[in-house]
Every structure is written in structure tokens, then in C-alpha cells.
């Protein structure tokens, strides 16, 4: 046992905060200014040498055992190992000489972070009692769910609804993306369930492994209500050969598409 009498450096406690980010902020990366309440060394605090350990930071105990006397050293519980205790402190200052202070910290959030991830900023946590190393600021990311775009890893999924007339005739539509609106072409004869892949319109990988895609799921909307005029127009087309389902050999069903995109 024993060891040197030097007091060990104390470390301040870590400070944990949550940070809400929108999908757009996650896609582009963002610099956030965050208000935090940190414990900092208070002004006007005076210290004196710890009487329990005489400033050693450790207390030694001599224990009688069958093998003779043994000396064991342990961290001084009065000063927590710093060798100093508070002599005088102003009101509002806790008994470690720290006071809560509002601080604005600038956090650089890289693109591609995800819900539940933790960013760590060394030395931005609470200061240490008696002047040691400050703790870390631990920032937990909370992703605000986007109304339009669903996230699947680095890919983004958008559900597009088009009328069956547009699906048959073809059209062009605007869809939202994290980099603004994108115009896409719907080919004539597009089937419901088709997935269009917008390459590179997803999220940048946090570790630099490229960029995800945006997948546009095409849902062909079937009218739920029809006027008698609309009904008779559709009925006049009912027997037309072009309106009979006839998937070609190359056309993939739902399970084939799922295998292709997620397999
Ligand atoms: Zn002590």
C-alpha cells in the first residue's frame, strides 16, 4: 500500500442534454447554439488545506493482521482526494465551491446523425470542485419525425399518390426532398407499387460511406366515390382489352420489388 502523497486530479461531472433536430438539419449538418446550466467555479470561494489528510488527498490506516502491520491508503473522504476543502463560500455556492451558471455552447452537428446517437464534447461539462479537469458535455440526438419523408437508415422514403388517369397517361410531379422540391417524371402505364429511386437524394453517411437515396413509392389512387356520369364513362371502358390486367414477364410483383430494394 502507501504510494505518493500527491493528490489526484479531480474531474468534473458530465453534463447530459438532449438536442432535437429536424430531418433537414440532419441532412445538411447544423451548427446549434445550446443554452446549458453548467456548474462552474464560483468567485469568492477560498480554500484551505484539508485537515483530515493534511492536504495529502489520501488517508492511511495501519491495520494489525496475522501477517503483521499493514498500511492501507484510501482517498480522503473529506476532500474527495483534492487535499483542499472550502474555507469560505458566498451564498448560493454549493459545498464543493461550484455554482450553476447559464452558458451558451456552440455545437457542430455533422450530417447524417441518427436518433439516440450521442455527441461528446470534452471539457464542456461541469467544472471540477477545487480546480480539476471539467467533465464532458454529452448531447443525445432526438430526431423529430418528418411529416413527409420517412427515414430508413440513410435512405428516405416518400409515399406518392397519383390518380389512375395520371398513371395511365403519364405525368410529371413535384416531390419533397431534403434539398428542396424535385420534379419527377411518371411514365405512361406506371403500375401502383413501383418504386422510383432518386440517387443521392438521401442522407450523407455519418462515416463517409457515400450518400443514401430517396425512394418514391408510387400509390395509384382508386376513386372511392363516383358520380353517375363518371361511372358510365368507366363502364364504357370496362370491356376494353387495354384495361384487362396483363402483367408482362418482366414486371415485378410486390415481393420481387422488396427483394430488389432491401435484399
Ligand atoms: Zn482530505
How much of the residues is beta strand, in percent? 35-45%
Number of helices: 4
Tally of DSSP β-strands: 15
Q: Which class of the largest domain in CATH terms? A: Mainly Beta
Helical residues, percent? 10-25%
Task: Supply the CATH architecture of the largest domain.
Answer: Sandwich
Gross geometry: elongated
- Widest sheet: strand order? 10-11-15-14
Mean pLDDT over the full residue set:
89
Rg over alpha carbons: 33 Å
Tell me the span between the first and last alpha carbons: 60 Å
Secondary-structure content class? mainly beta
CATH topology of the largest domain: HSP40/DNAj peptide-binding domain
Low-confidence stretches: 1-5
> Which ions, cofactors or small ligands are bound in this entry?
zinc ion
The topology string of helices and strands comes to EHEEEEEEEEEEHEEEEHH
Supply the number of structural domains.
3
Written description of the protein model:
- This protein is mainly β and 263 residues long.
- The protein folds into 3 domains: 9-44 and 93-144, HSP40/DNAj peptide-binding domain (Sandwich); 46-88, no CATH class; 150-262, Urease metallochaperone UreE, N-terminal domain (HSP40/DNAj peptide-binding domain), CATH 2.60.260.
- The chain has 4 helices and 15 strands.
- The protein has helices spanning 23-28, 164-169, 228-237, 254-262; strands at residues 15-21, 30-41, 46-49, 58-65, 68-75, 84-88, 98-109, 118-121, 137-143, 150-152, 155-163, 171-175, 182-186, 195-198, 214-221.
- The strands form 6 sheets. Strands 10-11-15-14 form a 4-stranded mixed beta sheet. Strands 1-9-8 form a 3-stranded mixed beta sheet. Strands 2-7 form a two-stranded antiparallel ribbon.
- The model is unreliable at 1-5 (pLDDT under 50).
- Bound molecules: zinc ion.
- The site of zinc ion has 7 residues, from loops.
Amino acid at each position: 500500500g502507501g504510494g505518493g502523497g500527491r493528490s489526484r486530479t479531480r474531474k468534473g461531472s458530465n453534463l447530459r442534454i438532449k438536442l432535437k433536430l429536424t430531418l433537414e438539419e440532419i441532412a445538411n449538418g447544423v451548427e446549434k447554439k445550446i443554452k446549458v446550466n453548467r456548474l462552474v467555479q464560483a468567485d469568492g470561494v477560498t480554500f484551505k488545506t484539508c485537515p483530515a489528510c493534511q492536504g495529502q488527498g489520501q488517508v492511511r490506516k495501519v491495520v494489525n493482521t496475522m501477517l503483521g502491520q499493514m498500511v492501507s491508503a484510501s482517498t480522503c473522504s473529506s476532500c474527495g482526494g483534492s487535499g483542499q476543502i472550502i474555507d469560505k463560500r458566498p451564498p448560493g455556492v454549493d459545498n464543493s465551491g461550484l455554482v450553476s451558471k447559464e452558458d451558451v455552447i456552440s455545437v457542430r452537428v455533422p450530417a447524417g446523425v441518427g436518433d439516440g446517437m450521442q455527441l461528446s464534447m470534452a471539457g464542456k461539462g461541469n467544472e471540477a470542485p477545487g480546480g480539476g479537469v471539467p467533465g464532458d458535455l454529452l448531447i443525445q440526438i432526438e430526431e423529430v419525425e418528418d411529416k413527409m419523408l420517412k427515414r430508413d437508415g440513410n435512405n428516405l422514403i416518400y409515399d406518392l399518390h397519383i390518380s389512375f388517369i395520371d398513371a395511365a397517361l403519364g405525368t410529371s410531379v413535384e416531390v419533397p426532398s431534403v434539398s428542396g422540391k424535385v420534379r419527377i417524371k411518371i411514365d405512361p402505364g406506371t403500375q401502383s407499387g413501383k418504386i422510383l429511386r432518386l440517387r443521392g437524394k438521401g442522407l450523407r453517411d455519418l462515416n463517409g460511406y457515400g450518400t443514401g437515396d430517396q425512394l418514391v413509392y408510387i400509390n395509384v389512387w382508386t376513386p372511392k366515390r363516383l358520380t353517375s356520369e363518371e361511372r358510365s364513362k368507366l363502364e364504357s371502358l370496362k370491356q376494353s382489352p387495354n384495361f384487362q390486367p396483363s402483367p408482362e414477364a418482366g414486371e415485378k410483383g410486390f415481393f420481387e420489388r422488396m427483394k430488389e430494394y432491401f435484399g
